[in-house]
C-alpha cells in the first residue's frame, strides 16, 4: 500500500520545504494498524536557527502591513482549508487515528474558523485615546515579535491554527513545533498560508522532540511561547520562558468534573458524558472524566450509558461509519491500560469495556467504572483515554467541594433542569471552560483555557489578542513642561 502521507520534507521554513537528514528519524505511525506511514527528521540546531532567523527577518514587514491586509491572507487561508476539508481530514486521521467521521467536522473546520475569526478581527485591533484634561495619552497595540507554538498530538491541525491565527493577526511571526507523534498536519497549514499570500518566514514549522521545543523556548529571538501539552511539560516550559521573561500561554491537562443532578434530563446527561469522555477516544484535554452522578439516579444513568455505548462503532477510522478509533500511539495505549488495571485493583466497579482490542492497532474499548471514590488513582490523574469514572454524591455543597479538590482547573460541566442551581454551581467551580447542559463545545468566539495547574492565558476570542500583543502608552503634553528646577 502506498500512503499519500510522506511530506515533501520534514520542515517548512521561509515559505518552502526544508530537509536536513542529520536530525533523528521520527517515524509516523498510523494508530489503526501500527504501520509506519511516513518518516520525518527532528530539527537540528541549524534547522532551528534557520527557522528563527526567517521568522525574525519576516516580522517587521508583516507587522507593518495593515491589519486588513494581514486579515485578508488569513481569511483566504481559511477558504482554502474549507475547500480542502476532505483531504485535510484524511491527513488528520492518518496522523492521529481519529475517525474520519470526527475529523471531517472537528479539525480542519475548527482551524478554518480560527483563521477566519482572527482574519476578521485583524483590521480592528487598535489602542485607545485617554483624555487627561488639557493633556492626553494614547495606547498603541503592538506585536510581540517572534512567537513559538508547541503542539500536543490530539488536535494537530486545530492546535497549529488556534496559535497561528491570533499571533499572525497581531503582526507576529511564528515557529511552530508539532508533537513528534503527529508531525504531518501543520506542514499542510504552512503550505496553505503561503498559497494564501503569507510572506516567507511568517509561519514556519520545525519538527522535533522535547529537546527541539526547549531550544526554541530559550532562544533570545523569541518573545512568546504558547504550549499545548501536559502539566509537567507546562511547568518546564513556563519556568524556562520565565527565566528569559517571555510571554506565555499554557494550555495544559485536566481532570474535569461533570456533575449530573437528580433532576437532569438523563438522556442529555448521558450524551454529554459520552461526548466528554469518548470523543477522540477520550484524548481530549477538557474531558469531564470525573462524572459525579446523584445517588438517586445513578443506576438509571449507568444502565442508559451502557446501552448507548453499545452503539459505538469501533474500527477502521477511514470508514465514515466508524465513531470510535484507536489511541494515538502504543505508548498512550500502555498508559491507559495501566490506569484501567489500577481502577480494577483499587476496587472500582467495571460497568463496561476495560479491554484492548486485538486488531493490530492501538484500540481500547470505551470503559466505564462506577463506585469510584475520590482517592482512587483513576479519579485523581489525567488518563487521556476512554476511561470514565462515575462517582456518587447526594449534596450540592459536598459535590462542589469534591469537584474542586484537584490541582487541575480546565473544565467543568453541570446537568440540571434547575437553571438557578446550574449558574450557582458553575459560579463556584474552579475551571476555565464550563458547560451547562452541554459538554466540550469550543467555538472560536468564546475564550478557552484553564485555571490552577491547567493553564495560563486564553486561546480564541478577543481574549487571545491580549496574549499576542502588547500596549505602548504615549503621554502627550499640550502645554509647557513645569520642572522644579
Ligand atoms: N488545554 C488544552 O487546550 C489542551 C489541548 C490538547 C492537549 N492538552 C494536553 O496535552 C497532553 C497530551 O499531549 P502530549 O502527550 O503531546 O503532551 P506533552 O506535554 O508530552 O508534549 C506536548 C509538546 O511539548 C513538547 N515538549 C516536551 N518537553 C518539552 C520541553 N522541555 N520544552 C519544550 N517543549 C517540550 C513535546 O515535544 C510536544 O510537542 C495532555 O495532558 C492534554 O490534556 C491540552
Ligand atoms: C481544545 N479542545 C477541547 C478542542 C481539544 C483539547 O484537547
Textual characterization of the structure:
- GO terms for molecular function: betaine-aldehyde dehydrogenase (NAD+) activity; metal ion binding.
- Belongs to the aldehyde dehydrogenase family.
- It contains 16 helices and 22 strands.
- With 485 residues, it is of the alpha/beta class.
- The strands form 6 sheets. It has a 7-stranded mixed sheet, sandwiched between helices.
- A hairpin with a 5-residue loop joins strand 15 and strand 16.
- Nicotinamide-adenine-dinucleotide binds next to helix 8 and helix 9.
Ligand inventory: nicotinamide-adenine-dinucleotide, betaine aldehyde
Overall pLDDT: 97
Radius of gyration: 23 Å
The main β sheet shows up as: 7 strands, mixed
Using the alpha-carbon principal axes, give the shape: globular
Poorly predicted runs of 5 or more residues: none
Helix content: 25-40%
Strand residues, percent: 15-25%
Within the largest sheet, what's the order of strands? 14-17-18-13-12-19-20
Number of helical segments?
Answer: 16
End-to-end Cα distance: 84 Å
The tally of strands reads: 22
Structural class: alpha/beta
Keywords: Metal-binding, NAD, Oxidation, Oxidoreductase, Potassium
Protein name: Betaine-aldehyde dehydrogenase
Pfam families: Aldedh
Organism: Primorskyibacter flagellatus
Keywords:
6-stranded mixed sheet; 485 residues; binds betaine aldehyde; 22 strands; alpha/beta; binds nicotinamide-adenine-dinucleotide; single chain; 7-stranded mixed sheet; 38% helix
